[in-house]
Design brief:
The protein is an alpha/beta fold and 603 residues long. Among the domains are: 257 residues, 3-Layer(aba) Sandwich (Alkaline Phosphatase, subunit A), CATH 3.40.720; 144 residues, no CATH class. It has 17 helices and 26 strands. β21 and β22 form a beta hairpin. The chain is globular and about 65 Å long.
């Protein structure tokens, strides 16, 4: 080879290397089902620890905004709050895949936006509830170059899955462990994605560690099923015996406080229930390692973001609850999120507040996409790099909401003294045995020196917990048993009354927010950037202003989002010139909500 050929070769290699390093990054997104944070499930996934947590950043204050599968997943993949998407349940009429389609979201959601940005998109595993063997092609899911979806009514049967590949008729995988099947599909899509020059997004959604559910009559909720190779693991594991584990003194909202204390037989079953969940996650853990090895072998690991999270959390025995989710307590809404990728600090814990509403905006920012052209997203990109994490633009609040039932799982599932019967069909008409008034709005506020949870239930119940002092949510300051604590309570030098008036007003904004105001709710109240957080809002200058706000309330307990049942929708706005309340404009009419009730409005 002469010197000219050598120079040309070196120049070509340099250009190739420059093109590879300038190529937009790939994204691999792993979404488990019902995985807990507070029972420390991440600690039992050593391969995830080795390859993602130790090499990436753990987001330790990450929340779902709806603590049940379908609404949470729609929230994640649209970047919009559930009250914005109007997908609020697992099944029609208020939720499920048919509702997702009916709301026009199939035309305008994350994979469509990524394709518009020049990405190839792939997905395997569970997508949405009520995406079934009967409607998988009515219409087809839009936005994916390649897909292999688990289908109802077999989604949660670990050894009896049905899947549709790229819209083809469903195929049975009876006898095969579905988590392993989804893993194999993911490896195949990864191979396919790397045949093309375009960057790719790959979503992977195994059902672990969800309960094994059979929808064919009689409906049954069993423990999570695991692969035989993991049957020997975790036999000594016990659910952490923290303060809210089967407490001697009842806690929680009205229907939770009525639950009987669990006996030894039930507790032993609950421990095994969680062991089964941990065993089911081992197949996911193995998949994480294999994905890393494949990305490394293809030379693209350093240019790939890996997200690992779950759709919602899970409770077992906390507050005396049977296995399940759907509540506003930390076990149900505080969930894992880990991210590894270019520019992300290794072995770091973020400390920022984030939610599922923020995940699509985060990945769109990575992809250089504008997202939807029709609607403004409610989420905001999560800080990823060392520089972003040093001065994050993320807020200190999370909006959490829920409509409908609370359903206990497992063979000892109970609501009060009524045993959980077998349901005669799959349409869930007999869910009267579950709690119907499990509709609520919650604000989580975590800032410097405070960590608060405030919930208003459709039943009229209210809860306020200071998790700095009460991390397990045992002392509800709005319940008569703990009301005496209000007199001595102070935050930033302000009384309980003053703190609660601010957080109720914050929840008033969040429960109906759209777009930017979901990220900057204090601006909606104050009309400027003068007040950016709870601490600033506690200034005594604003006391009369917050005393005069409408309050979060419901007129009835509905099974879905019906705005007419959800009380006032607008707050009074601060007027800098008048130093007080300015009437709000609602549908072109000037209105002013003047509070005339007793000063103890929260009791």
């Amino acid at each position: 080879m002469n010197w000219k050929s050598t120079v040309a070769l070196l120049a070509g290699l340099a250009a190739l290397g420059q093109a590879e390093t300038s190529r937009r990054p790939n994204i691999v997104f792993i979404l488990t089902d019902d995985q807990d944070w507070h029972m420390h499930s991440l600690d039992y996934m050593p391969l995830l620890q080795k390859y993602v947590i130790n090499e990436g950043t753990l987001y330790d204050n990450h929340y779902c905004t709806v603590s049940v599968c379908c609404p949470s997943r729609v929230n994640l993949w649209t970047g919009r709050a559930a009250h914005s998407t109007n997908v609020t349940d697992l099944f029609p009429p208020y939720g499920g895949y048919p509702k997702f389609v009916r709301e026009g979201l199939n035309e305008d959601w994350f994979p469509v936006w990524m394709q518009n940005a020049g990405y190839n998109t792939y997905y395997t595993g569970k997508l949405f509830n009520s995406h079934s063997i009967d409607n998988y092609n009515d219409p087809y899911v839009k936005g994916f170059n390649g897909s292999d979806f688990l289908l109802d009514p077999y989604t949660y049967e670990y050894y009896n899955a049905y899947m549709t590949r790229n819209g083809a008729p469903p195929v049975s995988y009876a006898g095969k462990y579905s988590v392993d099947v989804v893993a194999e599909k993911a490896y195949g899509f990864l191979d396919e994605a790397t045949l093309h020059e375009e960057p790719f997004f790959l979503g992977i959604a195994p059902v672990a560690c969800h309960s094994n559910v059979k929808f064919t009559p009689p409906l049954t909720f069993d423990t999570a099923f695991y692969a035989e190779r993991h049957a020997h693991l975790f036999k000594d594991y016990k659910i952490p015996r923290v303060a809210n584990f089967n407490p001697d003194v009842p806690s929680g909202t009205d229907w939770v406080r009525k639950l009987p204390q669990l006996n030894d037989t039930v507790i032993e079953y609950h421990d095994e229930f969680q062991r089964s969940r941990l065993r089911s996650l081992q197949a996911v853990d193995e998949m994480v390692e294999e994905l890393i090895h494949k990305l490394e072998a293809k030379g693209i690991l350093d240019n790939t973001y890996i997200f690992y999270t779950t759709d919602n959390g899970y409770h077992i025995s906390q507050h005396r609850l049977s296995p399940g989710k759907e509540c506003p307590y930390e076990e149900d809404v505080h969930i894992p999120l880990v991210v590894r990728g270019p520019g992300i600090p290794a072995g770091h814990t973020a400390g920022v507040i984030s939610s599922h509403t923020d995940l699509s905006p985060t990945m769109l920012k990575i992809a250089g996409s504008k997202g939807s052209e029709k609607v403004e997203l409610d989420g905001f990109p999560i800080p990823l790099t060392k520089e972003e994490l040093a001065s994050p633009e993320s807020g200190e609040h999370v909006n959490i909401e829920f409509w409908g039932h609370a359903l206990p799982e497992g063979k000892y599932g109970k609501i009060g003294d009524d045993p959980l019967p077998h349901f005669p069909g799959t349409d869930f008409k007999d869910l009267e045995i579950s709690v119907r008034n499990n509709t609520y709005k919650t604000a989580r506020v975590i800032g410097k020196g405070y960590n608060l949870m405030y919930t208003v239930w459709c039943s009229g119940d209210k809860e306020f917990y200071d998790l700095e002092r009460d991390p397990h949510e045992m002392s509800n300051l709005l319940h008569k048993d703990h009301a005496h604590l209000q007199s001595s309570y102070q935050l930033a030098g302000r009384s309980f009354k003053r703190v609660l008036s601010r957080i109720d007003a914050l929840l008033m904004v969040l429960k109906s927010c759209y777009g930017k105001e979901c990220h900057e709710p204090w601006n909606t109240l104050h009309g400027s950037s003068k007040v950016k957080n709870l601490r600033q809002a506690l200034d005594s200058e604003y006391d009369a202003f917050y005393d005069d706000q409408p309050r979060v309330s419901f007129s009835s307990c509905e099974m879905g989002y019906l705005k007419a049942a959800e009380g006032p929708q607008h707050v009074n706005k601060w007027d800098d010139e008048k130093h007080g309340v300015a009437p709000v404009n609602v549908d072109g009419k000037q209105q002013s909500f003047q509070y005339t009730g007793p000063i103890e409005w929260w009791t």
